What we know:
The chain has helices spanning 35-50, 69-86, 95-102, 140-147, 160-172, 188-197, 216-228, and strands at residues 3-7, 13-18, 23-29, 59-65, 90-94, 109-117, 120-127, 130-139, 154-157, 176-178. By secondary structure, it is of the alpha/beta class.
Amino acid sequence: MMLLVIDTSGPVCGVAVMSEARVFCELTAQNRNTHSASLMPMVEQALALSGRDLAEMDALAVVTGPGSFTGVRIGVATAKGLAQGAGLPCVPVDALEALGRSAGLFEGVICPIQDARAGQVYGAAFRNQERLRENRAIALTDFLEDIDGLGDRFLFVGDGVAVHREAIAGRLGQRAVFAPAHLGYLRPAAAGSLALENPERMDFRSLRETYLRPPNAQKNKKLLEAMAHE
């Protein structure tokens, strides 16, 4: 199966063209450009470097979140447009699960965390690719308390590490391990490997973003509406 993979859920914009047997092209970019400016040129470049055309793909995989609200929307909207134009089915991929797989093999608990602001993270926990904790938007202190009894060593990956590294080390001490930079972000090929294992295929109309809490704009709207009725 030939797969085009898109990820814009975090600070790194990623695209891959791959099959079960081979990664034909994997591109990642973390720069000052917005994902909306980077994504389509990267898609075109990945297909060109792979010697493939969009019509040759069997499905389109996209990371649907959790993550940056704006980033996730960009990726999902782009995937929908490409899938509709090419008549391709879509495969949703969980960002935290893909982050955990991006870290590679680890003898312990892999904890992918993304910064959710205000002292919170989007977090989950895995061991040997088995999920130990479901995705949650949770205060870092509560997350660390919850995973404490899961094992003796914890590998932290994701953009939440840079923000919360000191607090994690202070709570877990030597039990905490932090992924090096080249393993600490979501690799689109890792997302693709999950998509290839996933039998779920859906029409582009059914593809949805995965949010663990409402966007700030939605929360602010509700607050303003509540104030207006006081």
